[in-house]
From TrEMBL:
Its main location: membrane. This is L-glutamate ABC transporter ATP-binding protein /L-aspartate ABC transporter ATP-binding protein. GO terms for cellular component: plasma membrane. Involved in beta-(1-->2)glucan export. Transmembrane domains (TMD) form a pore in the inner membrane and the ATP-binding domain (NBD) is responsible for energy generation. It comes from the Bacteria. Residues 2-237 form the ABC transporter domain. The keyword Chloroplast does not apply.
Length: 241
């Protein structure tokens, strides 16, 4: 579903942020990406839906090359759900309207159809009764669940998460992770930047460890937690576990 092949990216001529990154995510797979702050995790995940350009290598999503100038990027992005650390809901729109906007504007769904889908998804993330509220009236954990529901409303073929729980108060982390665990168990293809190793242990198929722009380790979950090959991954794990 996602093929990342020998990707190199520089933010400036003297600063290479990604070095020869190669990995893939197959349909239904959950891949957790971890590594120290500044190692290039967010940059890599943004390259997947072409929010960041890269200078060499290739990335394709479901067979469509994101770095091909002929690719219809808005169409591609509409199939790739993205959830960030900060929820980025539209503050002036009610929760239900947050879920309807892109369905109508991008997918051309009718208001009724978009609303029905939106309400189904709000029910799924346990927030149906908050449909008529504004984002600021919800807690951080609730807002992040809305952000996930909003991404799902587009019927994505893959979901990308960039530290979705790291801006939340500790007591709200599990309500968001629970939604993500359900999604993983339902077979969604997911690439998740997170340091929540409990989540990784529960549902990840593979764990990627990045350091200084390189994919240092890319291993099945049990191998990764059992015995990371590299010193850098071992040190990182000993600090966060
Ligand atoms: P991570 O998500 O692993 O913390 P990032 O991908 O955000 O890492 O950043 C990797 C490196 O690239 C960091 O050194 C960061 O400061 C730098 N960086 C990130 N975004 C930009 C940008 N838009 N321009 C220049 N440097 C950037
Ligand atoms: Mg980041």
């Amino acid at each position: 579903m996602i093929e990342i092949s020998h990707v190199n990216k520089w933010y400036s001529p003297t600063f290479q942020v990604l070095t020869d990154c190669t990995t893939s995510v197959t349909k239904g797979e959950v891949v957790v990406v971890c590594g120290p702050s500044g190692s290039g995790k967010s940059t890599l995940i943004k390259c997947v839906n072409a929010l960041e350009p890269f200078q060499s290598g290739d990335i394709s999503v479901d067979g469509t090359k994101v770095n091909d100038p002929k690719t219809n990027l808005p169409k591609l992005r509409s199939r790739v759900g993205m959830v960030f650390q900060h929820f980025e809901l539209f503050p002036h729109l009610k929760i239900i309207d947050n879920l309807c906007l892109a369905q109508q504007k991008v997918l051309g769904r009718s208001h009724d159809k978009a609303e029905t889908k939106g309400m189904q998804l709000l029910e799924r993330v346990g927030l149906k009764e908050h449909a008529q509220k504004f984002p600021a009236q919800l807690s951080g954990g609730q807002q992040q669940r809305v952000a996930i529901a909003r991404a799902l409303a587009m019927d994505p073929i893959v979901m990308l998460f960039d530290e979705p729980t790291s801006a939340l108060d500790p007591e709200m982390v599990s309500e968001v992770l629970d939604v993500m665990v359900d999604l993983a168990r339902e077979g969604m293809t997911m690439m998740v930047v997170t340091h929540e190793m409990g989540f990784a242990r529960k549902v990840a198929n593979r764990v990627i460890f990045m350091d200084r722009g390189e994919i240092v380790e890319d291993a099945p979950k049990d191998d990764f937690f059992g015995k990371p090959r590299s010193d850098r991954a071992q040190k990182f794990l000993s600090k966060i576990l």
